[in-house]
Amino acid sequence: MAARPAARSSKSSVAIPQLDWSKVRPAPIVLVSGTEGFLADRAIRMLRDTLKTEDPSLEVSDIDAAGYAPGQLLTVASPSLFGEPRMIRVTGVEKCTDAFIAEAVSYLEHPAEGTYLVLRHAGGVRGKKLLDAIRSGTGGGIEVVCTELKKESEKADFAVAEFKVAGRRATAGAIRALVAAFADDIAELASACQQLISDSSAEITEATVEKYYSGRVETTAFKVADVAIAGRHGEALVMLRHALASGADPVPIVAAFAMKLRTMAKVSGARGGSGQLAQQLGMAPWQVDRAKRDLQGWSGDGLGRCIEVLAETDAAVKGAERDPVFALERMVGVIASRGA
Predict the structure, then answer these.
(1) What is residue 339's three-state secondary structure?
(2) N or C: which end of the chain has fewer CB within 10 A?
(3) How far apart are CA 287 and CA 292, in angstroms?
């Protein structure tokens, strides 16, 4: 995992370990703070996987602090009949209710045995009383700091770690090319690394990155997909043509659209909070939130039609049709019209 120095508070009252997201470990109270949602989601998922490995009977519960009902924390933290360990994931602590603050501060005095309370706070002053209590050492917790990766060197370290964890090697040129193409979004950088890990068996070089993501420094396939999904047909066509003129290959462009639409299809029609749906669908909460935003204005029939056209386009760019560019433009038109 990529490690970077954890941000530390200047206040002397901080009496608990403050760890980088990649160093997350079990503790009775785990405060996950910071503005980088992708890294926070990954840290929480890593913690869950660690606890599951230690005891497969782990029970996972989700609480939305913004809509907290009095007594909810006590209910989910109560010992079960068979004494299984519990992980309670609390989202939206930066928007929590007064009732949550009061009951969470009280819980810190006597944390439930075998229970891991994970609190996600994305920033701001709301919940300061609770944060101060945790940072003072009450409850025996830790803080996992998830700050944005702003420097190019930080993003490069992150990409290197993605390949290292998978037991793969990427050259320095490949890392530079990836960071240049996905400098604005750490989640897309991670997705690009994972795609290369899945699709390429050899050492990942700059040429490998160019094959998949050529032209993305200025216009990424994900950006084309985002604009098309938002219904902006003309803008999406201009971006698509620019990407193709810059040397982008049609196959990875279709793959980017497929990734977006598959996620939308998973979330479409599902009910529940982001944390709950993420657990059910095997996704990160930020992915659920993004898919919900993307689905605004879409119908189920329209989404189904777009997925059919996507499959046709995938075959077309792989040799089923003579004009892959026409197939791409046709796909963009259908998706921008939301399958109408």
Answers:
(1) coil
(2) C
(3) 9
Instruction: Determine the average pLDDT of the residues in 111-125.
Output: 94
> Which run of H or of E encompasses 118?
strand 115-121
Q: How confident is the model at residue 12 (pLDDT cuts 50, 70, 90)?
A: very low
**pLDDT-based confidence at 243, cuts 50/70/90?**
confident
CATH code of the domain containing 97? 3.40.50.300
Q: Do residues 128 and 70 both lie within one domain?
A: yes
Q: Round to whole Å and give the CA distance between 274 and 280.
A: 10
What is the crossing angle of helices 324-336 and 221-229, to 10°? 40
Which tokens is 76 given? 């989910």
**Could you tell me the residue range of the domain that residue 303 belongs to?**
152-336
Say if CB 187 and CB 159 are below 8 A apart. Answer: no
Element housing 247 (H / E): none
SS3 sequence of 231-243? CCHHHHHHHHHHH
Task: Clarify whether residues 286 and 200 are in a common domain.
Answer: yes
Q: Is residue 108 part of a domain?
A: yes
What is the value of pTM for the model shown?
0.62
Rg of the chain, C-alpha, whole Å? 22
Q: Is residue 315 part of a domain?
A: yes
Which pairing describes strands 29-33 and 18-20: parallel, antiparallel, or unpaired?
A: unpaired
Asked whether residue 176 falls in the same domain as residue 288, the answer is yes
pLDDT above 70 (res 143): yes
Q: Write the CB contacts of 253 (distance below 8 Å, at least 6 apart in sequence).
A: 221, 224, 240, 243, 317, 328
